[in-house]
From TrEMBL:
The keyword Lyase does not apply. Gene3D superfamilies: Periplasmic binding protein-like II. It comes from Flavimaribacter sediminis. Residues 1-20 form the signal peptide. This is ABC transporter substrate-binding protein. Keywords: Signal. GO terms for biological process: thiamine biosynthetic process. PANTHER family: 4-AMINO-5-HYDROXYMETHYL-2-METHYLPYRIMIDINE PHOSPHATE SYNTHASE THI11-RELATED (PTHR31528), RIBOFLAVIN-BINDING PROTEIN RIBY (PTHR31528:SF15).
Amino acid sequence: MKLLTGAALAAVLQVSYAGAADKVVYQLDWLPGGDKAPIYVCIQNGFCEEEGIEVSIEPGKGSTEAITKMATGTSDIGTAGISALMAAKANEDVPVTAVMSYFNKGPHAFFATKDSGIAEVADVKGKKVATSPFTSSNVFLPLVLDDVGLTEGDITLTKADPAALGPMLMTGSADSVIAWLTNVTVFTNQAKEAGKELVVLPWSAAGLDLYEASVLASDKFLTERPDVAKRFLKAYKKSIEFTRDNPEEAAKAVTAMIPEMSAADVAGGINDAFVLVFNDVTDTDGFGVFEPGRLQATWERVSASQGLEPGALDPESIVDRSYMPES
């Protein structure tokens, strides 16, 4: 029997994939936006299909919910905060594993308008601050305040629907809001419409530097379908790189599936988000890497923020680097 060449075998496999695509449920940890663009690119631009994978997207309302859906098998793989996974692992040892870093810098920030008088993190003292009930930023708020000599008692904190944060800031019903750096473009546009100038204060500037949004997967998915997981990550990495290099085209992939979104806002969100993906940390460690020292430092911040014993978790135990595609 004649053996197939490498190219011919690849073609046969590709046909096989196309004929019987492996279904993967991808879990969002938040509302669709620029930072979520790669999964839409993977679907719309055919990168997932090339790997023989058919993806459906599960909506999410925070990292805790996303991790729960993966732990229970509702979803196979998706993005969520590694800080939330660390806390969940320390408390319950949930069957979810981190397989690739996405944001290698924390996205948390205070947003204010210039007329609020807030020019640095310490200036939130005595101010009205609004946040979403679900954001992982709330966990780190006491730490970033402590880093500048404040406590939660020094601010008036209100929780509101995420969509209400921008209007609250622009109308002055909040002096500052807590949001992710992925929202800079949206808030900047809202400020311009209100005739105001936006001030953005990243918490990393106050010393809160850590891994955050990461690609997590159900242990069941990894154990039962490891090849599918590897092929998905290969396609997803390609989608991330395409999004970085073609933000406007990537935005079209999002709006093709969610037409009510503005392509300009999505493209702006991509540019906002990708400074958390590709930066000096990426230059040093590489894309998607969990560097052991930075991983340990992240756990130290998480344990401090949630009153967990530092010895309650070995952060290395929650990651599996073997699914990462080769560079």
